Each structure stands twice: as structure tokens, then as C-alpha cells.
Backbone:
């Protein structure tokens, strides 16, 4: 289980007699004792005391000392504000929580309260793995979910929120299915009541999920308190509009609401209503199976080499996340699957239109994440521009699809719904038009940088900008006008004491001191040779110029807040449009991949069949094609009912022949089909799979004290206790980690249980050729073998799955291909020949030289050359006649036979 880094055992110093600034720090630390405090001081975030020591050790920043407290130097470390995101990312990955304590006012405002006043500071957010929203902290094409687990009356529930996009989900599950549910979400952070850690099933599920686990007080998951927090979060009086939520679901959602209240500094995120799903709505895939099949990540953790990477042709980050979600949770409803397939088929038939769509989508940006940042007060003008551009592109694509419509082949239902979501209603259309007219061409990253409101939007803003940017021209124009009005040669001057003023010589000032001009020109100062005046207009201009930059920025920030609030009020239709663009991207991308890969549309129904013709492994095929080699397709026919195929196929064949690839490719076919994708095959029919299990590949679990064989048996036990007649199971080399007869017995019993008890579709790869006899013993068992041939002493893999069992495993030949020393290979052949020719049992193995006194091996290393080597060294091939060469060859043959 990935537990958060606990608070330091070193106690923080007492706050007594602390300086005013340190008093603020101690107050923030008292409110967030288990977090590192990023304390804003000018252009740096500073960390103090033990926070500085721990952060410096974790991410390699310099730790120094500054000032003293209680007679001791204060440890300090800091990071620049402009680079804070990078350091935050490192600390979060290291397992820390970080509380950001910002300056809440300008230092100039603090000075107005007195020379010793301290800038007001407060915690504006607490950064945890599941609450990241900034692009610099997130993977653009990957989801970042915060999940919560609650149990009520023996019923478990999982809730999740993608704070960066506002998506909320919840579903009730059985305790045993908790691991599969969490694995499908792959959360970065999991909230759970602390009492649940005592439940071994739940604890194991939390550990397997891989996210940072945050213990929460059980009281936070109680239904009454959770319901009140949810109502506050959504601003509603009742939760009836969210459906009949169970107590466990309300508890899980309540944990998320409590966490958001504690971490978001009072900001209300833009969240969609909870989307509920039943346990049976998606294919259950446990964590071990996900790892084995490399669905979203390869075994090493990288995206490259996974199923997702092999088929992903999306052109937007939201589309990539939506595709990953489909693969993570394949559907179990044939109707819903067909709706997705209909959209892909429509795009596949319209290549030119598809290319136009994909080209337009590239400019759509990530509206959902931009909206979330704006709602949480972390967005900027560029996020508003993303909304503007995304909404405009959506409207254009809706028109593009509508123009392509024809009466014979109208768009499918999913596409029609998508187009409807992109045709924005008047309030949102008006907002989009406001952004189009109101945003400047060049936009800063942050609103505080200014310059993002276009000219002409606010006349008073244009005036302030003109004063700030062209004050000399404005002053000169006023000077000329006042000269004309008064008939006196006036000059506008400026100094730090008077600001702007009018100046003329003493001799010419007299008319200004008498009526009627004296009513307009106000005397300010008389010097020896000059007299100074001002006017109401000049005084106002002076104030305007002095504060023009501040006023311009204040007006821009006011405008930004207005637009930000309007975006938040229109969150629901914006989120709907963002989701529609992502669906378009996924459908068009899967059509693009289907065309590239020569994939077919699967037929998914409620039967128990699995019929694949000329199927291919999408990842392996892509790899071998890059190397310039062909991929050999294979058929597979199974039927849990035993009508169109066997229920269980025993798969035999040499190592390296492709058994594991064959097993995995059929499991991936089921995932692709139920995710609503085309599949790499000539044809494919699938009866819906409720659970997918894969026991392929060996690996120990040293952290839990499990050997490779023990880990294999635990996974096998899960399959045998959970698989149903609608499940699909692939097993590879069950029983190989123990003694031969023990392993054979376990493999035999497991095969019988899958056939007789679980009655599920299963592929069972093994080197125990004795299992081939099950075909004649059980009603619905067949044999398949991956073929290989020996040619001139070498083994050639054909990678073809053919009916019938393999006659041998060719292990010695594979060892030779792997580079095992020739002497060892030769010895292995001797032992194998003896075992096969004489039928030696394990009790008789002591009679073999391998287990008794072994004779020297032919070709084994020795202290001197062998007779053959000596004879070869003495030969002179260039001086031999054909007859002499023939005689020498026979002599050498005789020496080998000795």
C-alpha cells in the first residue's frame, strides 16, 4: 500500500515569542500539520524548520538557516515562485502533501497599516496527488483521479472525481470486486476510513490499486454528514436528482467532498453530477490481469508497448483519456457496444470527412481542464481562449457532420447525440461571442500580467491604457487646448511634489489671476519668475496618469473575474461540449486505426461463444511490422455451452513458438470488442464476457513473502473461485514452479475445475503433454498446438495454431537458440534421449550419469586437446589429394565414435 509520508517525529518548536512572520507560519502549520508549508515571501516559497530539512533531502534543494527562534537558527529552504510547479511535482511524487500559504495582499497595502505591519497570508490550497489541476503537474493524455472507498452494511462503494475535468463517478460493488473496480480507475490517491485497514480483502485491494492511500476519520463517511457535505458541494437542497444513491455511495462521495473542502481553500470546483454505474455494467479485470495483458501500461510502467499505445490515434488529450477509459472498463451491454461500433463504422466509410474532422480537432484544446482551473481560481486568459476556440470548433464540426448527412445513411445515434451537444444554446453562444470579441490576440499566462482584454471592449480601459502608454501625447494635447482657451503661453510641467501643473512667466500670469479665467485656473504656487496653476481637468488627468497602469490592470482583472464567473455558471454545457469533442476524437481515431490495421467490426451478443478468424495480437503485430517481418494470424473457437466449439482448449507447443502471444491476443480481442473498437481479425464473434482473467508470466511478491509459485497459486485460486460461465480465462504454465508430478497434478485438477465447475471459456497453455488426454475424457475439451519444425538441425517456429497436441516441447533446441554452452546442450540431449528411449521414472534417475558418476562429456572443456582436435591440427588441407582428404574424413569420424 502506498501510504503518505507521515509527519516528522521531530516536534516543531513552540510558537511562543515568535516574530510576526513566524507566527503566521506556525499558524499555517498548526492547521496542516501533516503537510509541508510553501510559505510565500516575495518571489519565493520558503520552507522552515523540519519542513525545510525534509524537502531539501527529498528533492535536492539547498537548505540554509535564516534568523533565530528560541535561541536556535531557523532551518530554511526555498524555491522560486516562477519554478514552483516543477518542485511541487517532485514533492508530490515523493509522497508529500504541500499546503500553499500565499500573500493575500500587496506589501504596499500592509505598509498603510503601519511600518511594522506584516503582509496578510493564508493557505489557499493543499496539493495532493489526486487534486492536481495544472498542466505542468499532469500527464496531458492520462487521467488523474481521486477515489474514495466506503463500506456500509457489508456493501462497498467506490467514488471517484477527476478534479482537472470535473468528472464524477460512483458505483456499488461487492467487497471481493473492490480490487477490480479500483484497478479500472487507476487512481492517484485513494481516501478510505481508517477502520477499513483491518479488513484484509479491502487492504489487499488498496495495495494493488497503486495510488497514494489517505486514511480518513470514519465519521467523515457517515451517511448523514456525507449527505450534508454533498449538498454544499453541489449547491442543492436534495440528492434525489442524482438517483437512488446507496449509503455506501453517499459515504464514498462524502469522503471526496470532505477532502475537497480541506484542500481547495474554499473554492467550489465545477463538478458534473455523479455518474452511476452498476458492478455488472463493465467487464471486471483484476489488477494481476491488467498487468499481465499490458492494457494501458507495459510491464515496465511505460505507455509504449501497451495495447493503448498500439491503437491510439487520437489527436487531442481529452480523446486520449477517453480512449484509455474505454479500454480500462469495457462494456457488457451489446447495445451500448454496438452504438460505439456504429460511430466507428460511419467514420470508416468517410475517409475524407474523417481527415477534415481530425485536422479541426487538433486546435480544440482541453476545455474540461481549462474550465476546472478557472472554477478553482487557478486559470488564466489562455484557459478562456481554450473555451472560446473549443466551442467554435465544436459548432463548426457539428455543421460539417450535418452537411455530410444523407437520407440513405444518416449518422448513428451516438454521433447524433454528439452533434446535439456541440450545438450550443443561446447563453453559451453569447458567452463564446463575448470571448471572441473580448480576448486579445496575444494572451499572457496569468491574468495578473494584464494585456488580455481586446481594445474596444471597455472604453474606460482603453482610456487608462492610452494614459499609461501615451501620456506625453495626452498632456501635450491638453496643453495646446488650454493655451487656446486662455490666450496665455502655458507649459505643463511635472515634479514629485506638485505632480502635473501649468506654468507661465510672472508677467503673463495676470489674466489667469482675474475673473473670468481665475474660476477655471487655480493658483498653486508663485516663484520669483514663474507662476504655477492647475485646473480641475489637469488634476484629474494627473491622478489618472499616476494610477493608469493600476487602474488598467484592476479593470482587466475585474473583466476576467466576470468572464470566469460566467464560465463557471455555464459549466454543464461546456463540459457536455468537451465530452462530445472527446467522443468524436475517439470514434474517428479508432476508425483511423481500423483502416491502418485492417481490423474488422466484431459481432458482440449474449451467447457464450468466442469465434476469432485470422486474429492478430495488435501490439506484437505492430512491433514485428516495424522490424519488416510478417505476423502469422490464428483462429480460435471456444464456446462455454459447447455448441460451436470447445469450452476449454489445451494449448501445447515449444517454448518461443508463440503460446503466450496466442493466449494474450485472444484476451485482448475481448477487451477491444467490448470497449467498442474494431478488432485485428478477419472476423470475430464474441458472447459478452463478464470477467477476464489472465494467469500468464511468473513473478514473485517478496514484499508479502510470496514465492513465484505461491503468487501463481494465489492468482489461480482467485480465478477458480470467481470465474463464471460468462468469463474468459487464459492460463499459462500452471504448476511449473514445483515438482513435476505435483505441478502436473495441480494443472490437471485446475483444468477439470474450469471445465466442470466454472464452465467458462478458457485457454490453458502447458508443457504437461499428459493434459492432452483430457480431450478424450471431458466433453468439451480440445487440443491446440503451436507448430514448429526441425530443419537441418535447427528449430523453425511457424507460429501457427493447429488442431491436436504437440508431440514434444523442443526445450533443448530452444536452449541452444538461447546461447546455452554447446557442452551443456549436448549433455541435455544425452539425458533426454535416455529418458525418452527407456521410459526412465524419477526413481530410476540415480542410474543415469547425470545423477551418479557422470562420464566426461564429449566436447567438454579438458586440460588438453581432444583426439579429434589433435588430428585436425595435423592436417594440411592444401597439400592433400581428394583421396587423402576422404581418408582423413573417415579417420575423424572414427575418432568421434569412440
Residues:
Amino acid at each position: 500500500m502506498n501510504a503518505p509520508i507521515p509527519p516528522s517525529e521531530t516536534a516543531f518548536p513552540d510558537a511562543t515569542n515568535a516574530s510576526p512572520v513566524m507566527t503566521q507560519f506556525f499558524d499555517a502549520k498548526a492547521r496542516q500539520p501533516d503537510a509541508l508549508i510553501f510559505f510565500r515571501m516575495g518571489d519565493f516559497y520558503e520552507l522552515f524548520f523540519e519542513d525545510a530539512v525534509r524537502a531539501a533531502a527529498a528533492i535536492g534543494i539547498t537548505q540554509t538557516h535564516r534568523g533565530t527562534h528560541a535561541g536556535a537558527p531557523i532551518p530554511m529552504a526555498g524555491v522560486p515562485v516562477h519554478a514552483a510547479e516543477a518542485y511541487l511535482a517532485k514533492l508530490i511524487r515523493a509522497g508529500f502533501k504541500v499546503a500553499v500559504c500565499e500573500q493575500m495582499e500587496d506589501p504596499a497595502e500592509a505598509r498603510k497599516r503601519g511600518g511594522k505591519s506584516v503582509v496578510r497570508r493564508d493557505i489557499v490550497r493543499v496539493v495532493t496527488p489526486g487534486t492536481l489541476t495544472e498542466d505542468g503537474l499532469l500527464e496531458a493524455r492520462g487521467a488523474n483521479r481521486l477515489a474514495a472507498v466506503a463500506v456500509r452494511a457489508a456493501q462497498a462503494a467506490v467514488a471517484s472525481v477527476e478534479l482537472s475535468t470535473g468528472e464524477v463517478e460512483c458505483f456499488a460493488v461487492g467487497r471481493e470486486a473492490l480490487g477490480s473496480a479500483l484497478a479500472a480507475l487507476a487512481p492517484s490517491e485513494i481516501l478510505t476510513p481508517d477502520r477499513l485497514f483491518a479488513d484484509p480483502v479491502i487492504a489487499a485491494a488498496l495495495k494493488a490499486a497503486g495510488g497514494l492511500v489517505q486514511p480518513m476519520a470514519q465519521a467523515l463517511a457517515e451517511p448523514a454528514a456525507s449527505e450534508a457535505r454533498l449538498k454544499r458541494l453541489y449547491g442543492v437542497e436534495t440528492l434525489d436528482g442524482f438517483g437512488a444513491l446507496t449509503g455506501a455511495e453517499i459515504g464514498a462521495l462524502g469522503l471526496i467532498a470532505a477532502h475537497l473542502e480541506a484542500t481547495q481553500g474554499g473554492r467550489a470546483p465545477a463538478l458534473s453530477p455523479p455518474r452511476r454505474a452498476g458492478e455488472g455494467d463493465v467487464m471486471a479485470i483484476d489488477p494481476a490481469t491488467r498487468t499481465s495483458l499490458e492494457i494501458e501500461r507495459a510491464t515496465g510502467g511505460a505507455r509504449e508497448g501497451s495495447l493503448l499505445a498500439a491503437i491510439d490515434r487520437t489527436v487531442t488529450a481529452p480523446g486520449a483519456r477517453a480512449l484509455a477509459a474505454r479500454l480500462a472498463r469495457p462494456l457488457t451491454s451489446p447495445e451500448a457496444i454496438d452504438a460505439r461500433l456504429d460511430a466507428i463504422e460511419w467514420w470508416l466509410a468517410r475517409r475524407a470527412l474523417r481527415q477534415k474532422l481530425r485536422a479541426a480537432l487538433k486546435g480544440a484544446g482541453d476545455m474540461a481542464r481549462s474550465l476546472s482551473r478557472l472554477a478553482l481560481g487557478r486559470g488564466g486568459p489562455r484557459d478562456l481562449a481554450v473555451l472560446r476556440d473549443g466551442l467554435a470548433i465544436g459548432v463548426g464540426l457539428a455543421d460539417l457532420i450535418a452537411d455530410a448527412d444523407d437520407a440513405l445513411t444518416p449518422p448513428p445515434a451516438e454521433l447524433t447525440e454528439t452533434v446535439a451537444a456541440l450545438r450550443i444554446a443561446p447563453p453559451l453562444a453569447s458567452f463564446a461571442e463575448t470571448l471572441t470579441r473580448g480576448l486579445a490576440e496575444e494572451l499572457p499566462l496569468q491574468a495578473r500580467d494584464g494585456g488580455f482584454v481586446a481594445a474596444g471592449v471597455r472604453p474606460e480601459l482603453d482610456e487608462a491604457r492610452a494614459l499609461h502608454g501615451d501620456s506625453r501625447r495626452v498632456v501635450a494635447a491638453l496643453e495646446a487646448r488650454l493655451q487656446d482657451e486662455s490666450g496665455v503661453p502655458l507649459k505643463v510641467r511635472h515634479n514629485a511634489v506638485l505632480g502635473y501643473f501649468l506654468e507661465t512667466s510672472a508677467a503673463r500670469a495676470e489674466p489667469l489671476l482675474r475673473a473670468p479665467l481665475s474660476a477655471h485656473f487655480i493658483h498653486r504656487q508663485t516663484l520669483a519668475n514663474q507662476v504655477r496653476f492647475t485646473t480641475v481637468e489637469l488634476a484629474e488627468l494627473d491622478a489618472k496618469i499616476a494610477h493608469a497602469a493600476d487602474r488598467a490592470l484592476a479593470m482587466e482583472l475585474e473583466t476576467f473575474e466576470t468572464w470566469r464567473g460566467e464560465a463557471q455558471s455555464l459549466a454543464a454545457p461546456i463540459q457536455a461540449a468537451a465530452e462530445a469533442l472527446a467522443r468524436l476524437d475517439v470514434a474517428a481515431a479508432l476508425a483511423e486505426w481500423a483502416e491502418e490495421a485492417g481490423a474488422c467490426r466484431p459481432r458482440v451478443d449474449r451467447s457464450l461463444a468466442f469465434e476469432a478468424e485470422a486474429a492478430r495480437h495488435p501490439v506484437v503485430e505492430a512491433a514485428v511490422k516495424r522490424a519488416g517481418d510478417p505476423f502469422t494470424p490464428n483462429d480460435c473457437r471456444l464456446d462455454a455451452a459447447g455448441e460451436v466449439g470447445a469450452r476449454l482448449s489445451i494449448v501445447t507447443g515449444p517454448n518461443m513458438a508463440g503460446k503466450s502471444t496466442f493466449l494474450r491476443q485472444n484476451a485482448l480481442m475481448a477487451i477491444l470488442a467490448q470497449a467498442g473498437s474494431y478488432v485485428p481479425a478477419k472476423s470475430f464473434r464474441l458472447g459478452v464476457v463478464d470477467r477476464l482473467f489472465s494467469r500468464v508470466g511468473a513473478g514473485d511478491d517478496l514484499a508479502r513473502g510470496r514465492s513465484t509459485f505461491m503468487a501463481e497459486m494465489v492468482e489461480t485460486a482467485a480465478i477458480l473461485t470467481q470465474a463464471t460461465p460468462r468469463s474468459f480465462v487464459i492460463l499459462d504454465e500452471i504448476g511449473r514452479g514445483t515438482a513435476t508430478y505435483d505441478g502436473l497434478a495441480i494443472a490437471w485438477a485446475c483444468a477439470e475445475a474450469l471445465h466442470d465447475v466454472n464452465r467458462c471459456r478458457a485457454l490453458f497453455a502447458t508443457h504437461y503433454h499428459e493434459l492432452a488426454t483430457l480431450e478424450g475424457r471431458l466433453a468439451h475439451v480440445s487440443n491446440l498446438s503451436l507448430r514448429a519444425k526441425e530443419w537441418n538441425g535447427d528449430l523453425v517456429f511457424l507460429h501457427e495454431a493447429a488442431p491436436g497436441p504437440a508431440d514434444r516441447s523442443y526445450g533443448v533446441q530452444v536452449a541452444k537458440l538461447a546461447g546455452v554452452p554447446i557442452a551443456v546442450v549436448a549433455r541435455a540431449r544425452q539425458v533426454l534421449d535416455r529418458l525418452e528411449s527407456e521410459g526412465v521414472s524419477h526413481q530410476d534417475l540415480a542410474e543415469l550419469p547425470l545423477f551418479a558418476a557422470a562420464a566426461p562429456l564429449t566436447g567438454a572443456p579438458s586440460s588438453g586437446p581432444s583426439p579429434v582436435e589433435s588430428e585436425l591440427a595435423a592436417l594440411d588441407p592444401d597439400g592433400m589429394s581428394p583421396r587423402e582428404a576422404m581418408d582423413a574424413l573417415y579417420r575423424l569420424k572414427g575418432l568421434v565414435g569412440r
In short: The two ends are 63 Å apart (CA to CA). The chain has a mean pLDDT of 88. The chain has 31 helices and 27 strands.
